[in-house]
């Protein structure tokens, strides 16, 4: 169903123009919330993961080209369309790939359930930058991480930018927030990780830090890798409650990496492909 528009304030396509990321996530609580996916690749991965689309917004030129298979796959979903210039004016941002989709959110899984058969998981503490978050998800999906758990203050993995940076890999890996309550982290959260059988590894520079190449890490049957916020790293209490503290060996006096870069290195080193039991 193709619908030409020149005003996104009208009912239907207004979801792409009038709602912030926070409003998309929380304003429609009765419906469970929504999110916006951008680019045919990301949209296709959301569909493959079972997310339900409520509408599409795209440039006219994509209807019979890049987005044609998506439209054929969802024949009853409205497709709002116009020129690139009009769409950018109405949405307020540049459409990188010219195709957007609004999806319903799913009910979040309990983190204990998604960790039942997991051997390597990542715990992200208070990571607010959506680009870093997306890059971490992409590396996790590629490098042997079975699930990602997030502290209550982390950014939303279904944020439009996070989805784009991850290339839709947010939909390829199990993830969940450990709690909605900020006060549950780190004490309750760290205790719960141990209750479900995980040894915990904090990435931090401390006097007792071991190198990530230490064979003891690869021999752990179930290991949770903790990565901290971009500015200050992990909380002291998180580090204190961890079973291991590890560092990435570096040269020339450099003591830290961007959290997304550090995540890729540690995932490669101790992901499921490197387990030695």
List the helices and strands and how they pair.
Layout: E1 2-4, H1 21-26, E2 34-38, H2 40-48, E3 53-59, H3 68-73, E4 79-82, H4 84-91, E5 99-104, H5 111-114, E6 120-124, H6 130-142, E7 147-150, H7 160-165, E8 174-177, H8 187-195, E9 199-203, E10 210-211, H9 215-218, E11 223-227, H10 236-240, E12 244-247, H11 259-270
Parallel strand pairs: 1-4, 3-4, 6-7, 6-11, 7-8, 9-11, 9-12, 10-12
Antiparallel strand pairs: 2-5, 3-5
Describe the structure.
With 277 residues, the protein is α/β, with parallel strands linked by helices. Helices cover 30% and strands 19% of the residues. It has helices spanning 21-26, 40-48, 68-73, 84-91, 111-114, 130-142, 160-165, 187-195, 215-218, 236-240, 259-270, and strands spanning 2-4, 34-38, 53-59, 79-82, 99-104, 120-124, 147-150, 174-177, 199-203, 210-211, 223-227, 244-247. Strand 6 (120-124), helix 6 (130-142) and strand 7 form a beta-alpha-beta unit. The radius of gyration is 21 Å and the shape is elongated. The termini are far apart. The mean pLDDT is 89.
Large-scale geometry: elongated
Low-confidence stretches: none
Global Rg? 21 Å
Mean pLDDT: 89
First-to-last CA distance: 55 Å
Number of strands: 12
Q: What structural category arises from helix and sheet content?
A: alpha/beta
Biggest pleated-sheet summary: 7 strands, parallel
In helices, the fraction of residues equals 25-40%
Range of strand content = 15-25%
Order of helices and strands: EHEHEHEHEHEHEHEHEEHEHEH
Number of helices: 11
Biggest sheet strand order reads: 8-7-6-11-9-12-10
